[in-house]
């Protein structure tokens, strides 16, 4: 059996388990730590795909900077453990049913997709995943979404500070 296939299976299962812990954890801190582990397992999958630059950026940007921001906001807002979950309500049942419906749509869509990988020429393979190619893509095709996300993060930080300051 191929070692890459085994590693992919391990990383995929651990990514799904840690992502499930993000959703089911009662404490926001435990949820954030599970999200960090999800980011690391995703970085492992990127390494298996020979996208080392994306893997390093995944760890540095998401597991590093973004999670520090999340933990700062969680601690600033002084969020404790979630209260005990009550009885199922109509909105919870509808939310669960719609989530299952979206999962079914995703499974049907993925089963109909042609699974042939894209073929790159030698020049495309040499430039794939390099910092120059990523920078060219971010600052040309994705400049507006990139700037919108940075503005959104700035607004989130300012909002967290305002909310925390109003409690004092």
TrEMBL record:
Pfam families: Oxidored_q3. NDH-1 shuttles electrons from NADH, via FMN and iron-sulfur (Fe-S) centers, to quinones in the respiratory chain. Couples the redox reaction to proton translocation (for every two electrons transferred, four hydrogen ions are translocated across the cytoplasmic membrane), and thus conserves the redox energy in a proton gradient. It catalyses: a quinone + NADH + 5 H(+)(in) = a quinol + NAD(+) + 4 H(+)(out). Its EC number is 7.1.1.-. It comes from Corallococcus exercitus. It is a multi-pass membrane protein. Keywords: Cell membrane, Membrane, NAD, Quinone, Transmembrane, Transmembrane helix. It is an enzyme of class 7 (translocase). The chain crosses the membrane at residues 6-25, 32-53, 59-79, 91-110, 142-164. GO terms for molecular function: NADH dehydrogenase (ubiquinone) activity; quinone binding. It is found in: Cell membrane. One of its GO terms (cellular component) is plasma membrane. Belongs to the complex I subunit 6 family. This is NADH-quinone oxidoreductase subunit J.
């Amino acid at each position: 059996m191929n070692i890459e296939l085994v590693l992919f299976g391990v990383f995929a299962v651990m990514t799904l388990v840690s992502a499930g812990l993000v959703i089911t954890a009662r404490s926001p801190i435990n949820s954030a730590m599970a999200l960090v582990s999800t980011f690391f397992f995703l970085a492992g999958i990127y390494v298996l795909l020979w996208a080392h630059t994306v893997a390093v950026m995944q760890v540095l940007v998401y597991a590093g900077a973004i999670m520090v921001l999340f933990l700062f906001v969680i601690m600033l807002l002084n969020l404790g453990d979630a209260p005990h979950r009550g009885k199922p309500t109509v909105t919870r049942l509808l939310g669960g049913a719609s989530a299952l419906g979206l999962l079914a749509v995703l499974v049907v869509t993925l089963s109909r997709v042609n699974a042939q990988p894209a073929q790159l020429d030698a020049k495309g393979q040499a430039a794939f995943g390099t910092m120059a190619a990523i920078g060219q893509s971010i600052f040309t095709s994705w400049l507006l979404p990139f700037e919108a996300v940075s503005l959104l993060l700035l607004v989130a930080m300012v909002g967290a500070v305002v909310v925390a300051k109003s409690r004092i």
